[in-house]
Design a protein that fits this description.
Order of helices and strands: EEEHEEEHEHEEHEHHEHEHHHEHEHHH
CATH topology of the largest domain: TIM Barrel
CATH class of the largest domain: Alpha Beta
Low-confidence stretches: none
Strand content: 5-15%
Distance between the termini: 41 Å
Radius of gyration: 20 Å
Number of domains: 2
Oligomer: single chain
Largest sheet: 8 strands, parallel, barrel
CATH architecture of the largest domain: Alpha-Beta Barrel
Shape: globular
Mean pLDDT: 96
Helix content: 25-40%
């Protein structure tokens, strides 16, 4: 069942294991895909991944990520370069879905060249920025149009679908959450009002791109007081189905939650002091002390494995469209339990594919039952300044 073909909308997947959207840092300085990125995806496709969801691509210049060399898709000049990417992946019969996003307040004006924006003027403590600019209604409609245009470009570039990024505290997640959306107009307040921008994106995309598949990645929960919770997430999932969503990938957390989204039993302190803009300029003696103290003082977020599965199951029970679960899934036994136990229709993985792009083939051929990933999270922290790679907890040993 796991390794048999399955469908999401009109997309035929090779199996039920998806490479979840993972920021690779392999765009050029303008956000166009590079040959290195195509080779990375080709490696995944050659090794029988069910489907590839790309790293997030920005729909507007002011929504660009703080991370190194984010993909972009904010004008038509990106269509032909992406055609080269989709054409190569399709040679292997593998579908590829473009994740599209706007980072909202979770970025830095130094990176984008613009003030950060958000549904409400609430400062994000992760990025040390001033209060974000609270979006006006005309600016909200501009964002809706930008997402819809990105959907059309993705279709023209040969992608099999798009995934709207409604998770991890980025702009559309900021609208959904009462923690970040404190508006009193028709774009805030009730769940329906906070969902309005997403419903408008779906409606506009459908008018412009027809029945082109639009998936979402959304939070079921986070660690913010007044933030997303599973009760509201289930309600939003129903709204997504009514809006024409093709599938829901269930995740969790925002940047202010630290490692809530990508958990591990060790903290990537060394990687943070090497690559994070907030910490890398600290004096050496401070770093030396902090490396010993921070792991002791920082509360670890548990569980480390399969931590969105129960929430995906709750959402799956309330909708008829496919549900995908992600988060700490790293063993064949977990995949089998989730799929055969009907807790989700598909599973997606991020970190295991960084160290082993051939993990699906290893699972399928019975050569391996567990990922080699140790969840050190150095890969994701270092991605702020360099292209994606596995460090396996040994930053210095790999000359980084």
């Amino acid at each position: 069942m796991i390794f048999e073909p399955a469908t999401i909308g009109n997309i035929r997947l090779n199996n039920r294991i998806i490479r979840s959207a993972t920021h690779e840092g392999l765009a050029d300085e303008y956000g166009y895909p590079t040959d290195q990125l195509i080779k990375k995806y080709e490696m995944l496709a050659r090794n029988e991944v069910g489907c590839i969801i790309t790293g997030f691509a920005g729909v507007m210049p002011n929504g660009k990520s703080n991370s190194y060399r984010m993909l972009m898709i904010h004008d038509d000049t990106f269509i032909d370069p992406y055609k080269k990417l989709t054409g190569k992946i399709h040679e292997y019969g593998t579908p590829v879905i473009l994740q599209i996003a706007h980072c909202g307040r979770q970025t830095r004006s130094k990176i984008t060249g613009f003030p950060t924006v958000a549904p409400s003027a609430i400062r994000d403590r992760t990025f040390n920025e001033d209060l974000p600019h609270e979006l006006s209604e005309p600016e909200i409609f501009e964002i809706i149009e930008s997402f819809a245009n990105a959907v059309v470009r993705a279709k023209d570039a040969g992608f099999d679908g798009v995934q709207l990024h409604l998770a991890h505290g980025y702009l559309l997640a900021q609208f959904l959450s009462s923690y970040t959306n404190r508006r009193t107009d028709r774009w805030g307040g009730t769940t329906a009002n906070r969902f309005r921008i997403i419903g408008e994106i779906f409606a506009r995309a459908k008018r412009m791109a027809g029945d082109f598949p639009v998936l979402v990645k959304m939070n079921a929960h986070d660690g913010r007081k007044g933030g997303m919770n599973i009760t509201e997430a289930v309600e939003i999932a129903g709204m997504l189905e009514s809006a024409g969503c093709s599938a829901i990938e269930v995740s969790c957390g925002v940047f202010e939650d630290s490692l809530y989204t990508v958990r591990g039993d060790t903290l990537p302190v060394e990687a943070a002091f090497r690559h994070n803009f907030r910490y890398k300029s600290y004096p050496g003696f401070v770093k030396s002390i902090a490396k010993r103290v921070v792991p002791i003082l920082t509360k670890k977020i548990r569980p480390y494995e399969n931590y969105n599965v129960q929430f995906a199951a709750m959402i799956r029970n309330m909708v008829s469209i496919p549900v995908i679960t992600v988060g700490g899934i790293s063993t064949l036994a977990s995949v089998e339990s989730i799929i055969t136990g009907e807790k989700a229709d598909f599973i997606s993985m991020c970190r295991p594919f960084i160290i082993e792009p051939d993990i699906v083939r290893k699972f399928k051929e019975g050569r391996q039952a567990k990922s080699k990933c140790i969840a050190c999270n150095y890969c994701l922290v270092a991605a702020e300044e360099r292209a994606l790679r596995c460090y396996r907890g040994k930053l210095k040993a790999q000359g980084s």
